[in-house]
Structure formats: C-alpha cells, structure tokens
Amino acid sequence: MTVAASTAALGTSAAFAQAMVDEKDAQAAALGYVADAKRVDAKKFPKFAAGQSCGNCALYQGKAGDKAGGCPLFAGKQVAAAGWCSAWAKKA
Ligand code: SF4
C-alpha cells in the first residue's frame, strides 16, 4: 500500500508535465485504449461493461477526482480517467 500511495503521489505531481496517451499510439491501439470509455467497441471487446474506466481500474495511478493519471502500461504518459483499455482490471 505504501508503494502504491507514493506512486500515486508521484503521478499527481507530474500530472501536468506528462503528455496524454494518443489513441493512435502503437501501444494504445494494441490495447484498444480510448480516451472516453463511451467509445469502446463492444463488439471487439465483449468483456467491456458499462461503468469500467481507467478511473476505477486497478492499474490507474491518478487520485479520485483527477481527470488523468499514470498507468504502468503507458509509462511516461497519462491516461484519461474516463478512458478504457482491454487490460482493465477491477480495483480491489
Ligand atoms: S490498464 Fe487500466 S488504467 Fe491503464 S489504460 Fe487500461 S483501463 Fe486505463
């Protein structure tokens, strides 16, 4: 928990210095990342369920209320809290 907390703090302090992930980036395209979960292709990603977003993903490093935050799958960039990708995992 301590590691997660300090990682989140780091992510927050760098929030405005880091670029947002572009959906067209190779890694983003490979994972099916979209900046707005409303645009997830449900046919392509049948496991997607409404309500899932980066903001409630186990890998998301932003704080509650942040519009964007870090994600270990996109090192050095920020994902939108409202975004989604196929690696989404339920926050414990
Ligand atoms: S792993 Fe989670 S936080 Fe990272 S881009 Fe995918 S849904 Fe968003």
UniProtKB/TrEMBL annotation:
This is High-potential iron-sulfur protein. InterPro entries: High_potential_FeS_prot (IPR000170), HIPIP_sf (IPR036369). Homodimer. Signal peptide: none annotated. It comes from Roseateles albus. The keyword Zinc-finger does not apply. The lineage of its organism: Bacteria, Pseudomonadati, Pseudomonadota, Betaproteobacteria, Burkholderiales. Transmembrane segments: none annotated. Keywords: 4Fe-4S, Electron transport, Iron, Iron-sulfur, Metal-binding, Transport.
